[in-house]
Amino acid sequence: MKHQLLFVEDGIAIIRLKGELDHHATQTIRDEISQSLYRGTLRAIVWNLKELHFMDSAGIGLILGRMRDFVPSNGKTVILYPSETMKKIFQYSGLGSYVWQTTEEETIAELGGIFNGK
Amino acid sequence: MENEMTLSFIAISENEGLARMVMTSFIASLDPTIDELAEFKTIVSEAVTNAIIHGYEEDGEGIVTIRAKRSGREITMTIRDEGRGISNVEQAMEPLYTSKPERERSGMGFTIMESFADHLSVWSEPQKGTAITFTKEFLPIQSNFVLGER
Q1: Least CB-packed of A38, A63, B136, B143 within 10 Å?
Q2: Counting beta carbons within 10 angstroms of the beta carbon of residue B67, is it exposed (0 to 12), middle (13 to 18) or buried (19 or more)?
Q3: Are A84 and B16 within 8 A, CB to CB?
Q4: Which domains does chain B have, with CATH numbers?
Q5: Quick one: which of B132, B123, B104, B134 has its CA closest to B39?
Q6: What is the dihedral of CA B114, B116, B122, B126, to 10 degrees?
Q7: C-alpha dihedral over A16, A20, A25, A26, to 10 degrees?
Q8: Cβ B105–A65 below 8 Å, yes or no?
Q9: CA–CA separation, B113 vs B95, rounded Å?
Q10: What angle do CA A69, A75, A81 make, to 5 degrees?
């Protein structure tokens, strides 16, 4: 399980997940992700799932946990590029409304940040 | 076209991926669509994770056993553990219910399994174990080629 974490100016974190996200993978990446995020100063977390080949309900736990810990009540969580099956999992879990149909750059523009990372 | 298999492994989380990989191979001859395969792998993953975490608390000793049968285009699978069991199956199957909120379990496992399977049943008895049985039928292969007459 690999992931890449980028910061955009002004409290927007982008997490690009790669490979397979199951309970086993979340055990290894949860702490790494949490330690990299700035507690309390984030406005938004963007989860880019374009290169994620598999996700089960462990992914829901990971995303909900980071929402709870790092995004203030007026902050945003955005999920990009879920597969059809992942989309269903998000819908069943009440996260369907967090899925945006935008690109990473469009999302950042919408959130009012400046994109520096590649 | 029939086939049957049994797979057993110890209760460590690494084996969640092993179970998905083996089961993906088992159904490969059905030539599933991307979505069918993803849904099938998700059911396998949820059931195996349940057995590893809830049945055995990842003790690395308990044995999880998968029995699978392919009959035509239908797969029937049972994922069984001999762990602590579930005292209230109805409650465990409610969306968002989890006995382990501190572990960031979402409580969506059973809801997802039920949604992606055609049929799913759960047997469980405290201190004896849990068995999840599901069936999933795969749609006939859509051929892109049409045989024409010369």
Answers
A1: B143
A2: middle
A3: no
A4: 2-137 (3.30.565.10)
A5: B134
A6: -80
A7: 50
A8: no
A9: 11
A10: 90
Give the span between the Cα atoms of B95 and B79, in whole angstroms: 20
Residue type, position A57, single letter: S
B4 in catalytic set: no
Please give the span between the terminal C-alpha atoms of chain A, in angstroms, as a whole number. 20
Residue in the block written with tokens 């993953």: B45
Contact between chains at B53 and A23 (C-beta distance less than 8 A):
yes
* Catalytic residue check, B15: no
B4-49 pLDDT tens trace: 999 999 999 999 999 999 999 999 999 999 999 999 999 999 999 9
State the Cα–Cα distance between residues A89 and A82, nearest whole angstrom. 10
pLDDT in tens, A11-42: 899 999 999 999 999 988 998 888 888 766 78
Tell me how far CA of residue B41 lies from CA of A5, A36, B46, in angstroms: 27, 31, 9
State in words which class domain A2-109 has: alpha beta
B88 has catalytic annotation: no
